[in-house]
Amino acid sequence: MKRRSSLLLTTLFGLLITGLPMLSSAQRTQKPPLHGKHWMAITGKPLAATAGAQLFQQGGNAVDAACAMLAATCTMWDVLSWGGETQALIYHPKLKKVIAINALGVAPSGATVDFFRSKGYEFPPEYGPLAAVTPGTPGGLCYMLAHYGTKSLAEVLAPALEMAAGYPIDAQTATSIERGKERIKEWPYSKKVFLVHGGKSWEAPEAGEVFVQQDLHKTLSKLIEAEKKALAAGKDRKAAIMAAYDRFYTGDIADEFVRGSKEQGGLITKADLANWKPIEEEPLHVNYKGVDVYKLQEWTQGPAMLQSLQLLKNFDLKAMGYNSAPYIHTLYQVMNLAFADRDFYYGDPYRKPKTPIQGLLHESYAKARAAMIDLKQNNPNVLPGDPYPYEGKQNPYLSLLEQRKKEFTPHTELKNDFVPKHDARSSSSLTELPKTALLASLTVDSAYVDRLLRGTTSVEAADEEGWVVSITPSGGWLPACIAGNTGVGMSQRLQSFVLDSLINPFNVVEPGKRPRVTLTPSMALKNGKPYLSFAVQGGDTQDQNLLQFFLNMVEFGMTPQQASEAANINSNQLWLSLGGTKTDDRKPRSGSLLLDKNTAPEIIEQLKKMGYSIQLGDRTSGPINAIYFDQQHHTLWGGSSNNGEDYGIGW
């Protein structure tokens, strides 16, 4: 007994001197952490993670493996397609810098405010050919592989090509097809691919059935064929990969894609495909307690997490305690301030007007905004700030902001729309906390469960040479409209534009412009070296969950697996970026707060008194995928939430 007490004291002392909180040591996880010395591959499906592992075992680097996982997830519709969009951060170990890849498609010719309003829309549609931006993933994959990978396109696409020839489909995807079959029947090429048991009560493939995609197999084979022909003609590796790129965007694949899109009412033209290009960018970053956090530019919602970190520098989170009522309240208020700015100021940086991003990320601006927070009560009417003076400029939108304030009043009723339909997948149930009792039996909200059963995905890869890749790809989720005989599902990202400049003058739809998306990979450096690579699915909740994952590790000393499974909160006091065709569908829901179902009753009671409408969920963590770089031991740690089918392999 004496020896056990001595051991306990030694352990406690060790925790104190290392700065790790008791929470970290005590918190057990449902999934084991991943460990590796040479490489790590994590993504949304076990088979796709295996594709990444295959490339590593063949001597490829993290970019090769990430591209293989991206190709596999697209082929598995997890939950995206080859016609979607790819957003990536890459750490280049030789240059010792983070590189950003913008492979988001653009609005096609004819996609104007007048066009959509003439059809009665208040936002572009959620589904079908009119919801599509130009495909970005094929171009993004080819660009990343050509410039930063080591393998051929044929080697990287080999797992996806084999899967297109037939793979045992998982229950999740089969169920998604069956659930969306009435919409799928509206599109002949989708019906041909997905409803393999047409006329029966269950028309989708059955779980475990070998699902064959002949048209997609032909399309991928054409890409490989183009590369081989270029190599045979004496082209180098990079030029040969880009020859495949050209065949997709300007060759016979483009011809069939455009034909199939137009046949079904789409707007995309050959010129739209030919004129689109992926862009290599400088990422944005801020420093939080010695950690440099990198995000993509303001065409994504990524800077909202950076703004949140700047705001949180003004508070002592560790003193509040993990998921205490003051901590939850502070996070909620900070995120609402950041998202209020996101909802008005973010948009395509390559089109006018230009977002005042330097002002938005300025520490003095954050300090001024943080001073507005009432530490005892929720602010139901958080408004965009004025970052222009922090760039030495005058805000040209002050009158518009005043008009916006009068025009749009946030909802005060509870609505279960934390996550758009396609963008999350766990077995969570969500209910309103009964008004008559603090805790009562919870009823399952089937609509919310339906949303949580589907999602986009993330791809994380790292190798011992120092290459690191974080990707949040999406678009072309089920039910998807397939473009002709290409086997390629078209994106639905056009719905992230607005038609009314009063909502966001920086994100009004126009041909050739990128919508402001929710997709937001993340990377962090410490001491100038990789520290974290992390991403998540979940629409408007992405940067909320990623912020808390990051704080779980940096503030509360959790491991990546602990941080990925830990209970998070979500705010719905923001404009939805996806889902809903009416303005009223997307307006902020004041005080709407999602908590983990195991939250202590006394904390719930405190939050209710602060003005919150509480909802409870089974799992509120993601799914988050992450790689942590143990700089002391020179090893890799992997974490993957205990939601959905996300899976990792390390060596």
Q: Short description, anyone?
A:
By secondary structure, this protein is of the alpha+beta class. The model is unreliable at 1-25 and 416-454 (pLDDT under 50).
Point out poorly predicted stretches.
1-25, 416-454
Strand % is: 5-15%
Report the helical percentage.
25-40%
Shape: globular
Tally the helices: what do you get? 25
Q: Structural class, judged by helices and strands?
A: alpha+beta
Largest sheet report = 7 strands, antiparallel
Estimated radius of gyration: 24 Å
- Major β-sheet strand ordering: 1-21-20-16-15-9-8
Total E-strand runs: 22
Distance between the termini: 40 Å
Mean pLDDT level = 90
Keywords:
single chain, 651 residues, alpha+beta, 7-stranded antiparallel sheet, 22 strands, disordered N terminus
Detailed description of the structure:
The chain is α+β, with helices and mostly antiparallel strands and 651 residues long. Helix content is 38%, strand content 15%. The protein is built from 25 helices and 22 strands. β20 and β21 form a beta hairpin. The longest helix has 21 residues, at 325-345.
Secondary structure elements and pairings:
Blueprint: H1 2-18, H2 22-26, E1 34-36, E2 39-43, H3 46-57, H4 62-75, E3 86-92, E4 97-103, H5 113-118, H6 137-148, H7 153-164, E5 167-168, H8 171-179, H9 181-184, H10 188-194, E6 210-211, H11 214-232, H12 237-250, H13 252-263, H14 270-275, E7 279-281, E8 284-288, E9 291-295, H15 302-312, H16 317-320, H17 325-345, H18 357-360, H19 363-370, H20 398-407, E10 424-425, E11 430-432, H21 446-452, E12 453-454, E13 459-463, E14 468-471, E15 522-526, E16 529-536, H22 542-554, H23 560-565, E17 570-571, H24 583-586, E18 592-596, H25 601-609, E19 613-617, E20 624-630, E21 635-640, E22 647-650
Parallel strand pairs: 18-19
Antiparallel strand pairs: 1-21, 2-13, 2-22, 3-4, 3-14, 4-7, 5-6, 8-9, 9-15, 10-12, 11-19, 13-14, 15-16, 16-20, 17-18, 20-21
Keywords: Transferase
InterPro entries: GGT-like_enzyme, GGT_lsub, GGT_ssub_C, Ntn_hydrolases_N
Protein name: Gamma-glutamyltransferase
